[in-house]
C-alpha cells in the first residue's frame, strides 16, 4: 500500500494578493477549513498517512495548522467550539508530517524533486491543494480511486478531466486511447498547448501517483514551458518505459487557484456539507 503523499506548497499564490502576502494560498479557507486540510484528509482516507510538504518562505502557518496550540485548545476546552478542532486533531493523530523547502520557484517538477528526501525510493501520491476535489463520499476520494488503478497497472497514474477547448492553455493535455471505461493509456502529453493545437481536451489535474524513477527523470529534465521544470516532460519519458495511465475520476474538482473557482467551491461546500449541520 502507498503510504506517502507529497504536497507541493511553495507557490506564491499571486492571484490572491493581497491576502497571500501574509497567508499561504494553501491556508485560504473553504468555509472554515484550509485548502490543504481538505487535501490531507483525502490522502489519509486513501491510507496515505505519511504527509510530506514542500514549502517556501513565509509558509510556517501550514506547519502550525498540524501542530498543537495549547492556548487555543485550552480556550475552547469544554465548550461547543472544541468540536471544531476534532477533524484537525484526528489528522494529527493519524498522520506524520515532514517538511522541506523548495529553494527556487522552478516549477512543479522541481517542487516534486525537492520532496525526494522525504519520499525516498517508494511510489507516492501527489496532491496540489488548490485543486479541491469532492468525491461521492469520504472513502471515494480521487486518491482512493487512483490507488485501485495503480494496483492494477503498477505505473504512474494522473487524474484527468475534460476541459473546454479554450482552456487547454492552462493545463497539461494528454492524448491516448481508452482501454477501459475512464482509463486511458497515454501516448503523449503537452504542457499548456493553445486551443486548436492541443491533442485533446483531456487535462491533467492536481492528483498523481508517481513511481520513484520519476526523480531521476526530473534531474535530467531541462526547463520547458515558462522556463520551469515541468512534471509533464518527465512523465513523457515514463511513457516509453513503464507507461503512464490517465484516470478520469469520479467526483467534482474546483480550481481554487482562481478567484472564480474558489468562490464556486466555497458555495458548493457550504451548501453540501455545512448548511445542513
Description:
The mean pLDDT is 91. Strand 9 and strand 10 form a beta hairpin. This protein has one domain (4-274): Spore Coat Polysaccharide Biosynthesis Protein SpsA, Chain A (Alpha-Beta Complex). It is built from 10 helices and 13 strands. By secondary structure, it is an alpha/beta fold.
List keywords for this structure.
277 residues, globular, 13 strands, five-stranded mixed barrel, Spore Coat Polysaccharide Biosynthesis Protein SpsA, Chain A
Short description:
With 277 residues, the protein is an alpha/beta fold. It has ten helices and 13 strands.
- Output the number of helix runs: 10
**Strand count, sense and closure of the main sheet?**
5 strands, mixed, barrel
Distance between the termini: 34 Å
C-alpha-based Rg, rounded: 18 Å
Can you give the mean pLDDT?
91
Number of domains: 1
SSE sequence, one letter per element: EEEHEHHHEHHEEHEEEEHHEEH
Q: Say what the CATH topology is.
A: Spore Coat Polysaccharide Biosynthesis Protein SpsA, Chain A
Q: Which word captures the global form?
A: globular
Strand content: 25-35%
Which CATH C-level class is it?
Answer: Alpha Beta
CATH architecture level-2 label? Alpha-Beta Complex
Give the tally of β-strands.
Answer: 13
Low-confidence stretches: none
Structural class: alpha/beta
Q: What would you give as the CATH superfamily?
A: Spore Coat Polysaccharide Biosynthesis Protein SpsA, Chain A
Q: What helical percentage do the residues reach? A: 25-40%
Read across the widest sheet, the strand sequence of neighbours is 8-11-9-10-12
Amino acid at each position: 500500500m502507498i503510504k506517502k503523499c507529497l504536497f507541493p506548497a511553495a507557490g506564491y499564490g499571486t492571484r490572491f494578493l493581497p491576502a497571500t502576502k501574509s497567508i499561504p494560498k494553501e491556508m485560504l479557507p473553504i468555509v472554515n477549513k484550509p485548502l490543504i486540510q481538505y487535501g490531507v484528509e483525502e490522502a489519509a482516507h486513501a491510507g496515505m498517512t505519511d504527509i510530506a510538504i514542500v514549502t517556501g518562505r513565509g509558509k510556517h502557518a501550514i506547519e502550525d495548522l498540524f501542530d498543537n496550540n495549547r492556548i487555543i485548545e485550552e480556550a475552547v476546552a469544554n465548550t461547543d467550539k472544541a468540536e471544531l478542532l476534532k477533524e484537525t486533531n484526528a489528522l494529527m493523530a493519524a498522520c506524520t508530517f515532514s517538511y522541506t523547502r523548495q529553494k527556487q520557484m522552478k516549477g512543479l517538477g522541481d517542487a516534486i524533486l525537492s520532496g525526494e528526501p522525504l519520499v525516498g525510493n517508494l511510489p507516492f501520491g501527489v496532491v496540489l491543494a488548490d485543486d479541491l476535489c469532492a468525491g461521492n463520499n469520504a472513502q471515494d476520494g480521487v486518491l482512493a480511486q487512483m490507488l485501485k488503478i495503480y494496483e492494477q497497472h503498477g505505473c504512474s497514474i494522473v487524474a484527468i478531466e475534460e476541459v473546454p477547448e479554450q482552456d487547454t492553455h492552462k493545463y497539461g493535455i494528454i492524448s491516448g486511447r481508452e482501454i477501459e471505461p475512464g482509463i486511458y493509456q497515454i501516448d503523449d502529453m503537452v504542457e499548456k498547448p493553445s486551443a486548436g493545437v492541443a491533442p485533446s481536451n483531456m487535462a491533467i489535474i492536481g492528483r498523481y501517483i508517481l513511481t520513484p524513477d520519476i526523480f531521476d527523470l526530473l534531474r535530467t529534465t531541462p526547463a520547458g514551458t515558462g522556463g520551469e521544470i515541468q512534471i509533464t516532460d518527465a512523465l513523457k519519458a515514463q511513457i516509453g518505459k513503464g507507461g503512464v495511465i490517465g484516470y478520469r475520476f469520479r467526483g467534482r474538482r474546483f480550481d481554487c487557484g482562481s478567484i472564480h473557482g474558489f468562490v464556486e467551491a466555497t458555495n458548493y461546500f457550504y451548501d453540501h456539507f455545512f448548511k445542513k449541520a
